[in-house]
Amino acid sequence: MNNLAKRASSVTIALVVALVCTSLSLVAAAAYTLFGDAVLVSPGSSSPTAAQIRSDASISPGYGGVDFSIPEGLTVADLGQLSTDYAFTAGSCFNGSPRFQVNVTTPSNGTQNIFVYIGPPPSYAGCTQNVWSNTGNLAAPTNLVDATQLGGGFYEAYSAVQTAYGSYPVTGIQVVVDAGYVAPQTVLVDNVVINNAIFTFEGAASCKKDGWMQFTSAPGPFKNQGQCVSYFAKGGQ
User: Fold this and answer.
1) Half-sphere exposure of 127 (CA within 13 A, CB side)
2) CA angle 162, 168, 173 (to 5 degrees)
3) Which of 31, 36, 101, 144 could serve as a FRET partner for 51 with CA atoms 20 to 30 Å apart?
4) pLDDT in tens, 55-87
5) Are 128 and 86 in contact (CB under 8 A)?
6) 64 and 35 in contact (C-beta within 8 Å)?
């Protein structure tokens, strides 16, 4: 399935880039795009909102995901942080779904993908339902990734992939579910980290009706609704 071809019909939504730890810095307003069966739901992981991505062969289009904006000039060598909070509400992880897709421009074979699987290694199957987990840094040097589309190994250390293909441009990054042809999958994702940016799914409206109290971790906690609204109104500052 060519997820890039399906992005044209998606709706781009403004997002907040927040500081979650000293290793992350604030980045001016970035964007993400929901595609396929993806929708925003409440609550998220220590926040009011998450992205729900669903894959079910009985419901068109049978896949879902989020496409994240990335800075121009990013290369494979530059990508050093990649993670997300995730929670299954139906089904489980299996058959390479869910995963991050890192779109890479190759010298002679157009755009290909590095697949970075989500779930307990080495099988990336058996994710527990209704529990928020964090992937840890999937772009760590020793983490195994699937670089077969680039000519690399199926489970190859990311450091080896960076050594072999480090100069290749990265043109997009998505998180995708698409194994619903075997069994339905519904997973929530939140607090997606790509290098020094964290993608959440909130805005100033998330602060209202006591929503500000749900920010129990970054970009919160907030002292009151006004402080929460001000944070988002200033573009994450």
Assistant:
1) 30
2) 85
3) 144
4) 999 999 999 999 999 999 999 999 999 999 999
5) no
6) yes
